[in-house]
Specification:
By secondary structure, this protein is mainly alpha-helical. The chain has 9 helices and 2 strands, in the order H-H-H-H-H-H-E-E-H-H-H. A two-stranded antiparallel ribbon has the order 1-2. Helix 6 packs parallel to helix 9.
Length: 191
Amino acid sequence: RRYGRYVIDNATWYLVGIQAFTFAAVLTNVIPLGALTLDAHGVMQGQVHRLLTWLFIPVSLSPIWVLFSLAWLYTIGTSLESEWGSFRFQIYWGLGALLTLLVGFALETPITNQYLITSLFLAFATLWPNYQVMLIIIPVRAKFLAMLSAIYLGYEVATLPGWQKIIPAVAVANYLLFFTRPLLETISRTS
């Protein structure tokens, strides 16, 4: 209640809308993609916009896949926002973004929001494990896609060079913070 006045209602709408605008700007070469990523060197040289713009780069820059990715982001974002409320949703997103931002600065490596959006999907799949996603003509439950995402994150942690292994782990730390206890309780009930 105390901080509710600072909450942006329907934040997912804004996130998807700004990502669609960013896609159009990058596609038409109005804004170069490299100017938007989180890059510590660029920020230190006065490109302070990079502290936020990396959050608005769509996961895909293919004209066909961007529609799918934005629709998917809208589905998972609005679902989480309606379940949790705008405040908790923005805490979840903001915590993941802040941790990713800090790691990006510490490692001095350009970072996108790919893992952050994966953490949103993991939260969605945990709350709605039986939600069916149509992959072309095959219905697949969200929990199976989340398992594949978790395996991919593990692969990234195992194969990325040096300290870059931290990037995927930190980007989904918000998921672990929000869901470790409920998942452990579920496991203990089924055992």
